């Protein structure tokens, strides 16, 4: 069975590599020529633990190929996965130009019966549209069948998730398609849920919206905890122990980011809007997240009034650990606000720095180690909970900073430890720890 993948972002490349790993011949196609050359040379264009090794192994064993020629990719394919981006448009809805252009390219190049499977996250009804586009533009008399097969992998654990997913969703109406895809995925040994195409498309948005709802819910509980002397960590543990609720996605913090939750929640709200359904709950989830993302900055403002000229360290730039992705990362909003205030900003991330550098150029100081960012800093912001950032002890902050004022957006440290170590430590949804009154501390305002 020949498999082709259109788009070599996280989803496309990981899917391609994992299917090659279980024995299929896979051709990955991308319109970005440089990216394709990089992959042909054996390098992964994205940071994802374990990916480069599997890429090299399967290329060497002649199961994994890369091309930027659509004809080479599509002509002999039995199954073509569409895995290109569906970014957010100005009004929040999903931009379908990339999936639609893949559909056209498929139509122009296929010469045999093919199943076209959409892995990209697309609004309900898109697969029907793609089928129409293919039918309209196809050059040969071949049968094109379509299926929706949404992807649930997380960045940073994408390979693990692909081999250990909770379920594979196959949305298709044609029994031949269902049977073929069930066979394709059989080596992964993951439960398959078969639905019609529209339900499969909806499952993806509903899953992301539900997880985002859990996060915004716990973040609101956190904000209340701060005001009433409760600890959100204990509360999350207390409610999460109820199996009906579960522990996952109850980590309070500075909101959700990344390439999926922000755009997919907005796209679902827009989808509802288009059918005149007011999705109140989801709109609130988005609003809560927008407020949450500026919380650390607001805490700093309450402490100091103005941040002009303050030396600040931003620890962690990626939207979460184990990825270099900065799409919709909380660090971006924080840096923008700090720049506006004319603070002096030193940033550190184990791997995402170059992407931030691309945006901010020489307006920030880029540090190779976190200690250099902390040296003589007035305030440290913990934005991404990388292991190595979590492991920095309070003693290091004390030793290096002018005065240890730590604003932790990911609740990386223990409150009692902060008290014992005599640092100022403000986190999310937990008791604030103030040490030594900096003259402008405005503790009353914080209550
Ligand atoms: N990133 C994730 O963790 C994740 C997880 C599940 C689902 N998704 C969804 O999967 C889709 C892809 O996301 P991503 O983050 O992997 O994408 P990405 O934005 O990282 O990469 C998309 C790739 O597609 C390529 N491309 C654009 N137009 C093309 C065309 N016509 N033909 C071939 N290649 C083309 C681009 O050059 C790019 O390399 C999105 O719909 C996203 O919502 C993403
Ligand atoms: O308890 C939590 C869990 C996550 N987050 C934040 O939520 C965002 C997303 O995290 P995560 O879900 O781990 O990362 P993604 O790689 O964006 O994966 C999500 O988005 C993908 C793209 O659709 C889906 O495939 C995955 O199933 C879904 O988890 C990040 O900013 C996290 O910091 C929290 O704030 N608290």
Automatic annotation (TrEMBL):
Keyword annotations for this protein? NAD, Oxidoreductase
Q: Which reaction does it catalyse?
A: UDP-alpha-D-glucose + 2 NAD(+) + H2O = UDP-alpha-D-glucuronate + 2 NADH + 3 H(+)
> EC?
1.1.1.22
Which InterPro entries is this protein grouped with? 6-PGluconate_DH-like_C_sf (IPR008927), NAD(P)-bd_dom_sf (IPR036291), UDP-Glc/GDP-Man (IPR017476), UDP-Glc/GDP-Man_DH_C (IPR014027), UDP-Glc/GDP-Man_DH_C_sf (IPR036220), UDP-Glc/GDP-Man_DH_dimer (IPR014026), UDP-Glc/GDP-Man_DH_N (IPR001732), UDPglc_DH_bac (IPR028357)
Asked if the Swiss-Prot or TrEMBL record annotates the protein with the keyword Oxidoreductase, the reply is: yes
- State the family named in the UniProt similarity comment for this chain: Belongs to the UDP-glucose/GDP-mannose dehydrogenase family.
Q: What does this protein do?
A: Catalyzes the conversion of UDP-glucose into UDP-glucuronate, one of the precursors of teichuronic acid.
Q: What is this protein called?
A: UDP-glucose 6-dehydrogenase
Lineage summary: Bacteria, Bacillati, Bacillota, Bacilli, Bacillales
